[in-house]
Amino acid sequence: MAVTIKDVAKKANVAPSTVSRVIADSPRISTDTKKRVRKAMKELGYHPNVNARNLAVRSSKAIGVIMPSSAETALQNPFFPEVLRGVGTVAHETEYSLYVSTGGNDQQLYEEVKRMVYGHRVDGIILLYSRMNDAIMDFLVEEKFPFVVVGKPYENESSITYVDNDNVSASKDVTNHLIDFGHTAIAFIGGTTDLVVTKDRELGYEQALKDAGIPYNEDYIIHDEFSRSSGKKAVEQLLTLNHPPTAMVLTDDMMSLGVINMLEEFGLECPDDISITSFNNLYLSEITRPPLTTVDIQIYKLGIQGAKCLIEQLQSKDEPAKRVIVPYAIKHRSSTKRLHSND
Amino acid sequence: MAVTIKDVAKKANVAPSTVSRVIADSPRISTDTKKRVRKAMKELGYHPNVNARNLAVRSSKAIGVIMPSSAETALQNPFFPEVLRGVGTVAHETEYSLYVSTGGNDQQLYEEVKRMVYGHRVDGIILLYSRMNDAIMDFLVEEKFPFVVVGKPYENESSITYVDNDNVSASKDVTNHLIDFGHTAIAFIGGTTDLVVTKDRELGYEQALKDAGIPYNEDYIIHDEFSRSSGKKAVEQLLTLNHPPTAMVLTDDMMSLGVINMLEEFGLECPDDISITSFNNLYLSEITRPPLTTVDIQIYKLGIQGAKCLIEQLQSKDEPAKRVIVPYAIKHRSSTKRLHSND
DNA sequence: TCTTTAAATATAAACGCTTACATTTTAATG
DNA sequence: CATTAAAATGTAAGCGTTTATATTTAAAGA
User: Fold this and answer.
1) Do B80 and B160 belong together in one domain?
2) Which of A173, A240, B80, B309 has CA 20 to 30 A from A181's CA?
C-alpha cells in the first residue's frame, strides 16, 4: 500500500498525531520537528489520503456543480462551460475539487444530487440554472444543504444566496434600443417558461413596450428551449403572421444563430429586413454575420461569484444569504437597424 | 450526526456487518433479514457515507477528467463539453462520479493531477488531449496509474489505451475532396504542432498532395491554437502570399468560423473565392454561412468509448492496452466548390 | 532545589465502512 | 437422533486520518 502517516511518523521518530499536526502546520509543533517530519515525508514520498481525511473531518473539500438535466442540449450551449470555467478558477484557488453532474434526465439528476449530498461527496452545491418548482432546489433547502444558485430562485428569494444579472433591466434596455430604432412590431423569443431567467427577460420586454405605449401582442411571444432548432421553429411561426415583426428580442445567442440562419431561408436578411437583439455575448456572437447586438451578461464572472459565495458559506457556518448582481453591458454590433432606413 | 450503519443495525436487530452486506446485496444474507434491514434503512433515512466506504475499499468510484491547461481557450471549444457529455453518460450508468480538472496553466494542472492520484480522489483518469512530451502523461505511466487518452499518445502507443479517429485518413480524404474539385493551391491550417492530432492531420494532408503529385509548399502550412483569433491571423498571412491558396484544410470548426469571418473582411467569399474543409462537425458547422463541409469525428462517441475503456481497465486489473478507432464521416455541405466553375 | 506553568509531543478514541474469520443456526444425512 | 455440512449472522480488526486528552519535557519562579 501507499505510504501513510504512520510510516512517516516512524521514520521521523514521532507520533502519528505529530505528523498530522505538521501537515496542518500547527503552531504547537516545534520548528525543529517540523523540519524533521517534512524531510521524512519527502523521502518517503508521502501524500495524504483524502478519503481518510474527509472521513475524519466530515467534509470533502469538493463542490458539486449541477447543470440542467437535458445534458443533450445543455452542455452544447457554451454558457455552461463558461460558468464552469469561472467556478473552476476559484475552486482551484481555494483548493476545492469540482464534481460535475452527469444526469441525463430530471430523475437521474435528482438521484445524483442526493448521492452527492447524502454520500458526503461534496460540501456544497452550485446550481447552474433556476426554474420553477424544481425538485432539486426544494430538496436542498429541505436538507439545509449549503448551495448557491446562478440565476434567481423562483421562491425563498431572500433566504437563498444567488448570483444573477438584472435581467429585467437588461431586457428592457435592449427592447428600448429597438424601440429607439423605430420598431414597434417587436417579437420576443425566450426559453421555456419555467426558467426564471425567461420570466425576467420577458418582463423587461413587456415593461419597455408598455412604457412606450406599444400594445402587447400575444402572437409575438414565443417560448421554447434554448437551441438552434427551436429558434428555427420560432421564426417560421412569426413570419407567417399577418403582421410579421420587424424586430426580435432573443434571449440566447445560440438561438439567435438559428434564427438568422432560418431567416435567410425565408429570404430575409438581418438586419436589413429584421433587427435582432440577443443575450449572453458568447464568443460566437461577434463572429456571426451579422455580428450580434447582444447583452454581455459576463458568464465567467457569474461563475466566479457563484463559487465565491458558496465557499464563503462553507467556511463560516452562518453566513447570511446574499444576493450578488453581476452588471451587464450591451454590446452594440450590427444585428439591429433603424426601421425604414433601407439604404 | 447523520444516521450510520450502526443505527440501522440496531434498529433491525442485526450486526453492522449484516447491514453492510445487505447494501452490497450479498447472497450470504437471507431474503428475510434483507427485507428487515432495508426497511430499517428506509425508516431511518440511511445513506452510506462514501468517504468511509472509499477508505475501507481503497477506491473512490470516481474518474478524473483532464482538459488541456489553457482553460481560457480550451473550455470555449464545444469539443470538450461534448466529450464530457459522452464520458458523463457512461459514468452515470456505471455509477462513477466525475471529477474535472480546473487548472489554469500547465503547472497547476500537473499539481491537480498529482492531487487526484496521490490523494486517491479518483480511480482512473481520462486525458482529453494528447501532446508531445506531456508531463502529465509521463507522470501517469510512471505511477502506473490507470488512464486512457482521447487522442493518440505521442509515445508508448502500444502500451496505452486510447480512443481516437483515424485522423491521417480523414485528413487525406478531405484534401482529396479538394483535389477532386480541381484545387492544387491548398493550404493547411492546424493547431499547435505539439498536439498529436495536428501532426496526424497534417500528415494526411501531405500524403494526399503527394499522391496527387502536387508539390509541397511550406508557405501554405500554418500552425496555431484552436481559436477564432488565430484563424484570423492565419488568413491574413495566407492572403498576402504571391499565390494565395484557393482552398484550405482547417482542423477545427471554431477556427473555420474565424477564417470565414476574416475572409469576408478581405472581400472574399467562401466557397466562391475559396474552398474550406473543416473538422469536428460541431453543431455550429451546419448553421454557419456557408454550412461547413467538415469531418464528423463523433465527439460524443469518443467520450463514451474513452470512459468505457477506462472503466473496463478499472474493473479488471490486468486489462490489456486497447486502441479503439471511432469512425469518421465527411459531412458534405457548402463550403467547398469546384475550381474555375464560377457561376 | 523544588514547584508551577507552559510548551511539545504522545496516546488513544473516534470517523463510518468492509471483510476475514469465528460463531451460531438450520438443514441434510446416515 | 446424533453428526456433519451448509447457510446465516456476528465479532473485531482494519482503512488513514484528526483531535481531545494525557503525558513528558523544558523553562520559570520562589
Assistant:
1) yes
2) A240
